[in-house]
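Quick question: what would this complex look like in 3D?
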Amino acid sequence: MTPGEAYYPLRSDAEAEQVLRRVRDRFASRLQPAKEFVDTYYDTFDWRLYKDGGTLTTTRTGRHGTLRWTGCDGRLRHRLRRTTMPPFAADFPAGPLRDDLRPVVASRRLLPIVRLTCEAVEVQILDDLDKTVATVVREGCVVARPEGDPGRPLPPALRLVPVRGYGRAAEAVRLLLEEELGLAQADSDDLARLLAAVDRTPGDYSAKLDLRLDPQMAAGDALRQIHRRLLAIQVANEAGIRADLDSEFLHDFRVACRRARSALGQITGVLPPEAADHHRKALAWLGSVTGPVRDLDVYLEKMEGYRASLPAAVRPDLAPLEGFLRARHGVEHRRLVEALASPRYRALVDGWERVLQTPPADPTPSENAARPVAALATDRTWRAYRRVLKRGRAIGPESPDAALHRLRICCKKLRYLMELFRSLYDPAAIDHLIDLLKQLQDNLGDFNDLSVQQETLRRLAHEMHETDGAPVETYLAMGRLQALLEERHAAERRRFAEVFAQFSADEERRLFRRLFKPTGEGSP
Amino acid sequence: MKVFAVYNIKGGVGKTATAVNLAYLAASEGYRCLLWDLDPQGAATFYFRVKPKVKGGGRRLFRGRSDPCPLIRGTDFEGLDVLPADFSYRHMDLAVSEAKRPRRRLARLLRPLRKEYDFVFLDCPPSISLASEAIFGVASALLVPTVPTPLSLRALKQLKRHLKAEGYDDLMVLPFLCMVDWRRSLHRQIAGEADAEHFLLHAQIPYSSVVEQMGTRRAPLLAYARSNPPGRAYAALWGELRVLLGLRGERPAATNP
């Protein structure tokens, strides 16, 4: 699609022929031989390109291919000569396209979303210098889902493509088509039309909660709604995890599980206690079976940074470590796929679905189910916030690492509550507080990560030594890495006091109080 | 966005053919390219069958009243646009000198194009003038087609001396041999000397009537004769530039489908 392009669906091939004849009678033109091409549209699972307002496509014509990234205004952002789409932004050749694509799609895989097979006849409209000033294309297309779909034909159509700087010529053709021949333009958004033809909705997956809760809603109904959404996110990511498409599938899956588990632990007395307790334990199991692959994902993602932090001469020495991690990843991934195919996992999903669908038989089955959700949410969030403040204030320069670890867990619980019930509060205020909490969590998270990474590095060195072994240089490089991690660990520890002071500043405390303090309680 | 200025103090050394073919090659690899025809003769514009009319003239463009975007014309080749020449460009020196801070003026004209193009090729008028000062100010690299004759080498030396005196130390100057006729002993001798004295790109564009046919075909040479010696030489030249720019990976397609 180029800016100013017009698309005209027609009734039949005969009509298309007739219109083309009229165009050729009116304007000096050149008929190009018919050509076939296949357009494939790509996006990430969570529609990052669509949300960014663009389309990424490959067009194959015989042996040749062109990859295009078009902006929302139809203007070409980038173009490459190639027939296939690289799986990840990092796999693109160095250049402006890769530089622009990386921040948009990050580490997500580019997946085909819809495929269009077309036969096109092109009529070039010429000026007195034989220069092409507009193009009219007759298209006969079949649209299909990318995987094993025979597809369905679209009605024959004409496309009017203007050439930049020759708007008047395109306008003359448009007048002929619309005023004299009575053709009507259809929506020029190709992707929307194609997705509609294969019954897909752009943006049909997001890891965001996107809930709109009513403050007066009974807590039981609200919690069911929250858990249904979390379960939907979890299930939507299963296929991507199984196929190992990218590491974000597992990440989103685990976040959904953790949020659900945290909600079950912190908001009791709302859902049937036995079922809730059972599911909480099941989620703990799921956390433990998905953990090893996630840890390896994180480690592999960090490899680039690790390499960069070492002197250039030492960098290649880390290759055996990376190979070891990849091999381990393969083994752990197979285990994870088995777990997801197990009856235990199926029972977890099906059983929980049943609990969430069933309306409570007894109108007051649990003590909190009938309470308005806003009151319950405010109460629980306030409690979690006070716990964070209390633990944080108790931490001094001499406190053990374990104290920061405990604070990190409390922060997580608070964060989940704030996010689950976000829609009940003033969005500007709660988003500000979530950001504030995030800064504290980043500090605590990095502190914990750096300690875990050191531990893991030591463990990996032992495991490598016990299995096939690695060159001494690799262990030396891992040792240097260990020292660097130790240094950064200490730096994060020093930063904590400052970050926490920011979090617990008077003004921020007032805002927390305004949002979450239930009436009739003392100030923190 | 990188700006290549194809420039020589001397005229008739193959500047336009270089700018046209390099822009074509870059576009055929998928880069979004603009060829800005700054030469009042408008040869580059002519090769793409575009009519040389800039509304208000180049003078208006340089004095700050025009945005170049509406003047841009699409060529018959995807990804390659032209900003056409106009005869009033012959007043460009005057216009540039009238503009406040002439060096900045060209940079400001290029600014709205930054998001739209990966490469801009400037087909520059010959001679050293205020306009060329403006060009030196915006170019990322100066491509200098050089015919292996004593006068051409003298012009190259003059240019280098001038750039040094005016403080364009960061400007990458990339001379290469052009219109080389290996049957002539003078060309052979001078080519050897030039290589010893200057940093020359390896690619050498041979003298060929196929290049001259661009005037009758009105298309880039590579669009109709890719595999003959000058076509291969331009491809080699672009290949060298790509390495200098740190672009790798994509091989140019055999034809423009």
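Answer marked as accepted. The interface with chain B takes residues 35, 61-62, 64, 66-67, 75-76, 78-82, 93-97, 127, 129-132, 163-166 of chain A (CB under 8 Å).
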